[in-house]
Design brief:
single chain, 173 residues, mainly alpha, three-stranded mixed sheet, 50% helix, globular
């Protein structure tokens, strides 16, 4: 099994959980912020979805430049889920076809000429793609809790959902 295929197995588990969180987003409360310093719920939900695109960037590019980045304008749950599903489908293709040596190459996060981060792609996949993705999903859980919206099961039942998502945490997809 290649590194990309191993990462894909984990991504599929985490994305299944994250999709359940995205399904819960109340689109009538997109401007909600638990604190004045916090991002809005709408921006956080879109950001959580768009992180999936970074997997393909890591495989196919040596950098991601945010200088011209514009977040996608999403106004409905259906648009958000379709966006997430499309990015996940592209990430699957990228990770399935990635050769192991790709993950040894350097990758940079840029803002124009400014290098914000530069690490081997294998570390970027773990830190920037996976951990960052899980971090923002957890933030969504806090927002949902503040709004009294039931939290989906994550790695087992939540206080609101007694259904375990996976029969075994390492179930193959």
């Amino acid at each position: 099994m290649t590194i990309g295929q191993e990462l894909l197995q984990e991504l599929m588990i985490e994305s299944a959980v994250t999709r359940r969180y995205l399904e819960c987003i109340p689109f009538d409360q997109l401007h909600f912020k638990p604190n004045e310093k916090s991002e809005t719920l709408g921006r956080l939900a879109i950001h959580t979805a768009e992180i999936i695109a970074w997997w393909s960037s890591v495989v196919h590019s040596d950098k991601l430049d945010f200088i011209d980045f514009e977040p996608k304008d999403i106004q409905t749950r259906e648009e958000l889920l379709a966006y997430f599903d499309d990015l996940l489908a592209a990430a699957k293709v990228s990770l399935m076809s990635a050769q192991d040596n790709v993950f040894e190459q350097e990758w940079s996060m840029m803002y124009g000429e400014d290098v914000l981060m530069k690490l081997p792609k294998k570390q970027i996949a773990r830190i920037f793609c996976m951990n960052h993705f899980i971090h923002h999903r957890a933030q969504l859980g806090v927002y949902l809790r503040f709004l009294s919206i039931p939290i989906p099961a994550t790695y087992g039942p939540s206080a609101d959902d007694d259904h375990v998502i996976l029969s075994h945490p390492f179930q193959s997809f």
